[in-house]
From TrEMBL:
<keyword id="KW-0812">Transmembrane</keyword>
<dbReference type="InterPro" id="IPR013217">
    <property type="entry name" value="Methyltransf_12"/>
</dbReference>
<keyword id="KW-1133">Transmembrane helix</keyword>
<feature type="transmembrane region" description="Helical">
    <location>
        <begin position="114"/>
        <end position="130"/>
    </location>
</feature>
<keyword id="KW-0472">Membrane</keyword>
<dbReference type="InterPro" id="IPR029063">
    <property type="entry name" value="SAM-dependent_MTases_sf"/>
</dbReference>
<dbReference type="Pfam" id="PF08242">
    <property type="entry name" value="Methyltransf_12"/>
</dbReference>
<protein>
    <recommendedName>
        <fullName>Methyltransferase type 12 domain-containing protein</fullName>
    </recommendedName>
</protein>
<feature type="domain" description="Methyltransferase type 12">
    <location>
        <begin position="5"/>
        <end position="83"/>
    </location>
</feature>
Length: 211
């Protein structure tokens, strides 16, 4: 995309390795730095400087201190720069999901496999058959679009702690106070209240920093 410099970082060494692998696949550009570090580490963040574009999809709500992480991500954006973030939506089910995830993480490996298997069977196979859809077609399409096997995705969802969330309004208000304007949003809007209740996925935001 013609960026002068790119800096990627993650706190987890396997995620760093994965990014390094992707960098190699992209011909190892010398202007792309891949670092191990935490968005919660203010000293590390300050050293990075400021950027025209900061992108963090589905990360800040997994840090254990979401609002501090958001604040630190904000500090990386230059005036007139853009910040892309995805944050779990807060719904009436969010607190129950937190509890389910905590319980899931207490299970031995075999218990975790049983939960993932039955969830997969119920939602990816039985539910699709009830809807008169071909589950294998849906699974293949999902893999293609999401770039992730549904079984891994389910495991990732159940196991994904820390887990925090915020409503659309909470996020917007935070950014207004910090002089960021919503540039574009793919906030998921559903008309049916029963679907809204289940809308515990990510809200995606693009904010522009004022001058
Ligand atoms: C759900 S994954 C991100 C998904 C990914 N961005 C994508 O588009 O598929 C969450 C990531 O946040 C990272 N993470 C968690 N806490 C962090 C922290 N304090 N600083 C930096 N990265 C962190 C995890 O290591 C993990 O790689």
């Amino acid at each position: 995309l013609g960026a002068k410099n790119i800096v990627s970082f993650d706190v987890d060494k396997f995620s760093v390795q994965c990014t390094k692998y992707l960098k190699e696949k992209a011909d190892n550009p010398s202007n792309w730095e891949v670092l191990e570090g935490s968005i919660l580490n203010k000293k590390f963040i300050t050293k990075l400087g400021e950027f025209d574009i900061v992108y963090s999809w589905g990360v800040l709500h997994h840090t254990g201190r979401m609002w501090d992480a958001i604040r630190n991500a904000v500090s990386l954006v230059k005036p007139k720069g853009l910040l892309f973030i995805a944050i779990y939506n807060k719904t009436s089910s969010s607190k129950y999901w937190l509890r389910i995830k905590q319980l899931y993480n207490l299970l031995p490996n075999v218990g975790k496999r049983v939960v993932v298997f039955f969830y997969f069977l119920l939602f990816n196979i039985i539910f699709q058959l009830i809807r008169m859809k071909n589950p294998f077609k849906i699974i293949n399409e999902y893999k293609k679009n999401r770039g992730m096997d549904p079984l891994i995705d389910i495991k990732d969802w159940f196991g994904g702690l820390p887990y925090e969330y915020a409503t659309f309004d909470e996020v917007i208000n935070f950014f207004k106070i910090n002089k960021f304007n919503l540039n574009l949003t793919k906030y998921k809007k559903y008309n049916l209240s029963s679907i809204e209740m289940n809308n515990f996925g990510n809200n995606e935001y693009v904010f522009e920093k004022e001058n």
